[in-house]
């Protein structure tokens, strides 16, 4: 790695704190979710358009810094997808990875192929989940996984999906079953809100009557006890990347550079 590359990484690290997603990343995440939601087969009659939610993102930020390869035990009425790579994180690839699970999923009998995971996909296309907030964190070590210097990526969803025995959406003519007052945009039920909003909306989301108790979450048909259902399988695929340096070494470099700058 050249010194200019190191400096660029350092700059990026300073600006982002090593884990914060940029506004562009957030737009990418929301747009990709919405693209996949409009692509479902069979088509969905009640699929809502997804929006970014900073409160959900804040929960993901806080939990991502703990570097645990398991679901956030404190989530109540919030869904969660996890992804990890020991290469460079690309949010498009992570969300696409979750969507790719549709290849193992059959809508008509709500069935996931044996030994496969479909829960990330069904959360991504869960019709009612209209809010998403995500975070990434560079983890020097992980709890629950033999990964070092890995990029953990977490998305939280509201309302949560994956209720056992429930289909992710109702099939039918796109937007045929949109909640009252919503318009149809790219086969999705849309409100006038912007996809990325920094201000808090005046109305709070409606409360869900169902609670996503663990016993009501679908589990893989196989005994993949170590991997939570809605957790992406780890990628042992090291893609490298210009900024694939440990947070520790970056901090060290930062101090050295700061020292040089202040001398
Ligand atoms: C992320 O991956 C997509 C393809 O999956 C690519 O088009 C895009 O340029 C990548 N983004 C970055 C920042 O590397
Ligand atoms: C986030 O977006 C920036 C550009 O704003 C890009 O350089 C970076 O690779 C993206 N990060 C991820 C994790 O996709
Ligand atoms: C985000 O969702 C929470 C509930 O999870 C809600 O109270 C808050 O108003 C939402 N914020 C935005 C910006 O949508
Ligand atoms: C779990 O599902 C059963 C039926 O499948 C239902 O009777 C029960 O109320 C559900 N529990 C929760 C917490 O949703
Ligand atoms: C790493 O994974 C990406 C997709 O996630 C794939 O395109 C690439 O071929 C893989 N590389 C190796 C060396 O396995």
TrEMBL record:
UniProt keywords, alphabetically: Signal
Segments of skewed composition (Low complexity): 199-212
Secretion signal, residue range per the UniProt entry: 1-18
Location of the region described as Disordered in the Swiss-Prot/TrEMBL record: 199-230
SMART domains (alphabetical): SCP (SM00198)
Keyword presence, Signal: yes
Domain SCP, chain residue ranges per copy: 24-165
Pfam name, any one: CAP
Transmembrane helix in keyword set: no
Polar residues compositional bias, start-end: 213-230
Coiled coil location: none
Family annotation (InterPro entries): Allrgn_V5/Tpx1_CS, CAP_dom, CAP_sf, CRISP-related
GO CC, alphabetical: extracellular region
Protein name: Peptidase inhibitor 16-like
Natural source organism: Scleropages formosus (Asian bonytongue)
């Amino acid at each position: 790695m050249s010194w200019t590359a190191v400096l660029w990484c350092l700059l990026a690290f300073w600006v982002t704190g090593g884990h914060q997603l940029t506004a562009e990343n957030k737009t990418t995440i929301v747009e990709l979710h919405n693209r996949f939601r409009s692509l479902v087969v069979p088509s969905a009659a009640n699929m809502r358009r997804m929006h970014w939610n900073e409160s959900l993102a804040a929960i993901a930020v806080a939990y991502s810094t703990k570097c645990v390869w398991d679901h956030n035990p404190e989530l109540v009425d919030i869904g969660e997808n996890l992804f990890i790579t020991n290469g460079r994180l690309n949010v498009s690839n992570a969300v696409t990875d979750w969507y790719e699970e549709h290849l193992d999923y059959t809508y008509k009998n709500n069935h996931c192929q044996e030994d496969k995971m479909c829960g990330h996909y069904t959360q991504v296309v869960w019709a009612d989940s209209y809010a998403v907030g995500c975070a990434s964190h560079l983890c020097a070590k992980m709890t629950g996984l033999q990964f070092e210097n890995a990029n953990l990526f977490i998305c939280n969803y509201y309302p949560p999906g994956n209720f056992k025995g429930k289909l992710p959406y109702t099939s039918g003519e796109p937007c045929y079953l949109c909640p009252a007052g919503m318009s149809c945009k790219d086969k999705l039920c849309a409100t006038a809100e912007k996809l990325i909003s920094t201000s808090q909306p005046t109305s709070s989301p409606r409360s869900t009557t169902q609670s996503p108790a663990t016993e009501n979450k679908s589990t893989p048909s196989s005994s993949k006890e170590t991997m939570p259902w809605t957790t992406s399988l780890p990628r042992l695929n090291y893609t490298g990347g210009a900024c694939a340096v440990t947070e520790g070494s970056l901090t060290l470099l930062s101090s050295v550079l700061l020292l040089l700058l202040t001398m």
